[in-house]
Every structure is written in structure tokens, then in C-alpha cells.
């Protein structure tokens, strides 16, 4: 089965880009305003709090940029995840899904760059040893590459063949798990946990709406869009 996915118009692209600029700009501004405080720890989290600092005090600004850009990406990807299931039944949902799926990936790339290249200097030995700070570096990297490939395919291949639909559903599940577990479960601050929980609630609500609509269409004898 093959379906066509509507492309974002200038309207949806503009909305998504404005959100991207505002959230990333806010992330960098927040990092600058809070660099004098220790809202995020330079010490790798450990049960007995005896772990040595894995970062220097001079890296605090970049540490805050790493965390705040992750929050920006989480907010943007929540909009993409919440519209994903409706992309076949509503053109507007498909347009906003692809627009926000793209800009959330861009925001996540900024976070990924700051985490890997700025904070750790692209030293994968340090990254792999920092289990308390980076819980799953290899899976996270695989998801990042896969996400980028899916964004590229979404723009280049307008039709969704069955294998693309399966691949796309899997990467959306993995991205959801990456952000939800990273924020709601492992977040250092209550705001981080709150953002993760809010994302989970938003995605759950969109899923329930999607299921209800499918059930209503089935009762009317109309084949539901998937």
C-alpha cells in the first residue's frame, strides 16, 4: 500500500522555523543568564556523590547550552510526534508533521553537536565512560543518524510505501523513547521531568484521538486512513 504525504507550504515552514529560532534563541539566552549558577551538575551523577568532575567550571556555559537545547528539541519534537498519526487523514497535519519533524531534528543536531564536540571534544572514550551523564551514547547516535535519514527521505520521497511506513513508525517510537526516558526518567531538574511527562501526555492524547477516530470510521463502514 502506497500513500502520498503532503509537503509543507510556506505557512507551515514559516511557523516551524519561527518556533525553532525562538526556542533555540531562548535556550542560548537561558544558558547565558544561568551560567553563574549550578542548576546542572558538572559532576557525573552517582549514588554516593563521590564521582569526580567530568567537566571544568569553564565549561558551565556550554553545559547549560547542551541541556537547554535538548529541551528546545523536546518541545519541537512533541509537536511532530503529536501530528504524526494524522498525516494520512489530514493534509494540514501532514504538512505540520514534516515541518516540525525537520526543525526538531535540526534543534537536536545543535544539542548533539554541543554534547559530543563541545563538551566532550569528540572524545568517544570519555563519552563511553561517562555512563552517569550519557546513558546510551551508541543507541543515541544510531537514532540521530536514522532520524536524519528519515527526514531526508520524507522530503525526497513523497509516497510512503509499506517499508517506509514501518521504518517511519519505528524511528518515531525510538525518538519518543529517547526524549521521554532522557527527560522524565533521567532529568536532573524538575522542569526537565515535567517537560518529559508533558510530552508523554501529549503523545498519549493524540494516540487516543487517533484510535477513537479509527473506531468511528470502522463503525460507519469507512476504511480508516492509517
Distance between the termini: 10 Å
Quaternary organization: single chain
- The radius of gyration is 19 Å
Shape: elongated
Order of helices and strands: EHHHHHEHH
- The order of strands across the largest sheet is 1-2
Tally of DSSP β-strands: 2
Count of the separate structural domains: 1
Helix content: over 70%
Q: How many H/I helices?
A: 7
Q: What is the structural class?
A: mainly alpha
- Largest sheet descriptor: 2 strands, antiparallel
Low-confidence region ranges: 47-51
Mean pLDDT: 88
* Percent of residues in β-strands: under 5%
What can you tell me about this protein's structure?
With 226 residues, this protein is mainly α. The chain has seven helices and two strands. It has helices spanning 10-34, 60-84, 91-119, 124-129, 137-156, 162-185, 190-219, and strands at 3-4, 159-160. Strands 1-2 form a two-stranded antiparallel ribbon. Helix 2 runs antiparallel to helix 3. The termini are close together. Residues 47-51 have low confidence and may be disordered.
Amino acid at each position: 500500500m502506497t500513500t502520498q504525504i503532503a509537503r509543507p507550504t510556506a505557512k507551515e515552514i514559516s511557523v516551524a522555523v519561527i518556533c525553532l529560532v525562538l526556542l533555540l534563541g531562548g535556550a542560548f539566552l537561558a544558558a547565558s543568564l544561568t551560567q553563574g549558577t549550578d542548576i546542572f551538575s558538572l559532576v557525573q551523577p552517582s549514588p554516593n556523590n563521590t564521582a569526580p568532575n567530568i567537566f571544568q567550571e569553564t565549561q558551565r556555559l556550554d553545559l547549560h547550552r547542551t541541556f537547554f537545547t535538548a529541551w528546545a528539541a523536546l518541545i519541537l519534537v512533541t509537536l511532530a510526534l503529536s501530528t504524526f498519526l494524522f498525516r494520512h487523514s489530514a493534509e494540514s497535519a501532514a504538512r505540520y508533521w514534516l515541518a516540525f519533524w525537520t526543525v526538531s531534528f535540526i534543534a537536536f543536531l545543535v544539542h548533539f553537536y554541543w554534547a559530543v564536540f563541545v563538551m566532550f571534544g569528540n572524545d568517544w572514550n570519555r563519552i563511553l565512560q561517562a555512563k552517569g551523564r550519557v546513558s546510551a551514547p551508541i543507541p543515541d547516535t544510531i537514532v540521530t543518524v536514522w532520524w536524519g535519514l528519515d527526514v531526508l527521505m520524507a522530503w525526497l520521497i513523497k509516497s510512503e510505501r509499506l517499508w517506509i511506513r514501518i521504518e517511519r513508525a519505528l524511528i518515531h517510537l525510538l525518538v519518543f523513547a529517547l526524549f521521554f526516558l532522557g527527560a522524565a526518567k533521567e532529568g536532573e531538574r524538575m522542569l526537565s521531568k515535567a517537560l518529559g511527562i508533558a510530552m508523554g501526555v501529549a503523545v498519549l492524547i493524540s494516540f487516543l484521538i487517533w484510535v477513537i477516530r479509527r473506531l468511528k470510521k470502522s463503525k460507519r463502514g469507512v476504511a480508516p486512513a492509517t
